[in-house]
């Protein structure tokens, strides 16, 4: 009985996890590369320069170099959250 409950719980967790992960929206930016470093790629989009962070887990297809036109898929991730006290009325 214990093994059955554990199996059901594990199956449920496996099914719920992908649904939760899929809830985070993915965005994209396309444009020429202005700068490439080990931890960022800077892309020109219209009049704006977009600085997108990258790390060892970033999947890169092709040779990213200055001048290359790229499309970057990214997600917005909070770096920190500061909660302010509620106003007393």
Tell me the name of the CATH class of the domain at 25-79. Answer: Mainly Beta
**Mind describing the biggest β-sheet?**
4 strands, antiparallel
Number of helices: 1
CATH architecture of the domain at 25-79: Beta Barrel
Report the span from N to C terminus: 55 Å
Low-confidence stretches: none
Please provide the ordered H/E string of secondary-structure elements: HEEEE
Enter the CATH topology name of the domain at 25-79: OB fold (Dihydrolipoamide Acetyltransferase, E2P)
Strand content: 25-35%
Average of per-residue pLDDT values = 85
Shape: elongated
Computed structural class: alpha+beta
Strand order of the largest sheet: 3-2-1-4
Global Rg: 21 Å
Number of strands: 4
- Report helical residue fraction: 10-25%
Describe the structure.
The chain has 89 residues and is an alpha+beta fold. It has a domain at 25-79: OB fold (Dihydrolipoamide Acetyltransferase, E2P). Helix content is 24%, strand content 31%. It is built from one helix and four strands; from the N terminus they run H-E-E-E-E. The chain has one helix spanning 2-22; strands at residues 27-36, 40-45, 48-53, 69-74. It has a four-stranded antiparallel beta sheet with strand order 3-2-1-4, with no helix packed on it. The longest helix has 21 residues, at 2-22. The N and C termini lie far apart (55 Å). The mean pLDDT is 85.
């Amino acid at each position: 009985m214990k093994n059955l409950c554990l199996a059901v719980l594990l199956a449920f967790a496996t099914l719920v996890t992908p649904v939760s992960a899929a809830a985070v929206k993915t965005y994209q930016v396309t444009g020429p590369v202005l700068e490439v470093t080990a931890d960022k790629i800077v892309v020109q989009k219209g009049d704006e320069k977009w600085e997108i962070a990258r790390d060892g887990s970033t999947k890169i297809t092709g040779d990213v170099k200055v001048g290359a036109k790229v499309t970057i898929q990214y997600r917005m991730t909070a770096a920190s959250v500061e909660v302010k006290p509620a106003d007393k009325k």
